[in-house]
Amino acid sequence: MAVQTDFIFRSKLPDIYIPKHLPLHAYCFENLSQFASRPCLINAPTGAVYTYEEVELTARRVAWGLSQLGVQQGDVIMILLPNSPEFVLAFLGASYRGAMTTAANPFFTPAEIAKQVKGSKAKVVITQASYYEKVKGLEGVKLVFVDSPPEGHMHFSQLCEDSGDIGEVKIRADDVVALPYSSGTTGLPKGVMLTHKGLVTSIAQQVDGENPNLYYHSEDIILCVLPLFHIYSLNSVLLCGLRAKAAILLMPKFEINALLSLVHKHRVSVAPVVPPIVLAVAKSPDLQKYDLSSIRVFKSGGAPLGKELLDTVSAKFPHAKLGQGYGMTEAGPVLTMSLAFAKEPMDVKAGACGTVVRNAEMKIVDPETAISLPRNQSGEICIRGDQIMKGYLNDPEATERTIDKEGWLHTGDIGYIDDDDELFIVDRLKELIKYKGFQVAPAELEALLLSHPKISDAAVVPMKDEAAGEVPVAFVVRSNGHTDTTEDEIKQFISKQVSGCVLQKNKPSILH
């Protein structure tokens, strides 16, 4: 009997040495003395600049402060904040402590926040006063505020003020450091366990080596407008920026003119974005008011970037490298990246998502037979390497459905690899809706709709949208005797239980 040959694809770039033994924080601040005085974080609202030495020292103090709050190695803290220096310091401080961080979307409802706190068993929530109403009902959780704390609660500065030494925490490479939540290939949100080794590997795959796939350098000013609670921003913007010794410009929320002004003022050189931001930049009537010539890289991810939009931006930024990558939280998150971003860039095709990252393997399999497919044949995209997740938190069954016995992570996305090793995504096996780069699980919305006493059946499907990529649309069947149920009534019912970003454009249709 003939032996089945696996068609396995690798990067066009050579593999590199990756120091997988280092904890994440030690890897990011390696050789600190050589760049201690360089700017590390720039807080856009205030203009305050924090050097690498200041950030590293303060992060260690936060680790001590967390230990005094009772956070032990292996415990979880939650960060509920917009992009800010405190977000970065809390995440790095937890890493030094040997703790895990789960970050939540500040637009989440109290119920969504409580669900993630309970699921992750977070002991501390670091947030701001404007979100107090969302977190005040949490039981058994200590609240820390980065601004005016309500009576009886701690200010974040108190975590940083004590210079006590936490000592050397023995962190294993396989210890979990980040716990983002993802719906995976299907179903409800689950905690994704990303380890020190996994994140170090993912960052190195992007920015390390003599010819890095993603060329950041110490003179760069990297725009961080994408929310740090999203793994794309946490990994490819913040952590990759720290490893490259670049300056990271923290913007708490997206507003097009504010973004253009910051690029102009700070001479931003790298702009990691998502397609809705690319679209806003391309369509802005105020584009000519600002000098944006400093941008050398426009890096898109989170959702597909169409050829027409890519061409429009290319025409307006002729000197910038444009392209996209492809990621999934469970994959660490980066699977492929455009080689246009490399230190020695290569030509890429429009619509391609790049080539597989270094020190990893990719294959395309038949969804029915799991047999690997050759070039130019569409199938499910699978990735293998040290960068992928350890598994889903407390969910071995979902882990086994996603990572097979040979270590291949099955993405639920359909694509093919062409003759030039470039990946093209053509469809999706998984049910998720991608709203502005965020995952919306139809099953979660359908379950909420079915909990309404006047609804007997419901289905949620994606609808294409130029600005958002996709928006969820609900079709519902009213229960007998409730023909007067209105769309507004249903929207109000849902909006009290899920974040506004999920249903901002949702238009439930009522079917008799």
TrEMBL record:
Task: Quickly give the catalysed reaction.
Answer: (E)-4-coumarate + ATP + H(+) = (E)-4-coumaroyl-AMP + diphosphate; (E)-4-coumarate + ATP + CoA = (E)-4-coumaroyl-CoA + AMP + diphosphate; (E)-4-coumaroyl-AMP + CoA = (E)-4-coumaroyl-CoA + AMP + H(+)
Q: Which residues form the AMP-binding enzyme C-terminal domain?
A: 444-498
| One of the protein's GO biological processes | phenylpropanoid metabolic process
**This enzyme's EC code(s):** 6.2.1.12
* A single MF term (Gene Ontology): ATP binding
Q: Which cofactor does it need?
A: Mg(2+)
Q: Which InterPro entries match?
A: AMP-bd_C, AMP-bd_C_sf, AMP-binding_CS, AMP-dep_synth/lig_dom, ANL_N_sf
Q: Which UniProt keywords apply?
A: ATP-binding, Ligase, Nucleotide-binding, Phenylpropanoid metabolism
What pathway does this protein act in? Phytoalexin biosynthesis; 3,4',5-trihydroxystilbene biosynthesis; 3,4',5-trihydroxystilbene from trans-4-coumarate: step 1/2
Every AMP-dependent synthetase/ligase domain range: 30-393
Supply the PROSITE patterns for this chain: AMP_BINDING
- Name the Pfam families for this protein: AMP-binding, AMP-binding_C
Family of the protein in this entry: Belongs to the ATP-dependent AMP-binding enzyme family.
Task: State what protein this is by name.
Answer: 4-coumarate--CoA ligase
Instruction: Write down the species.
Output: Abrus precatorius
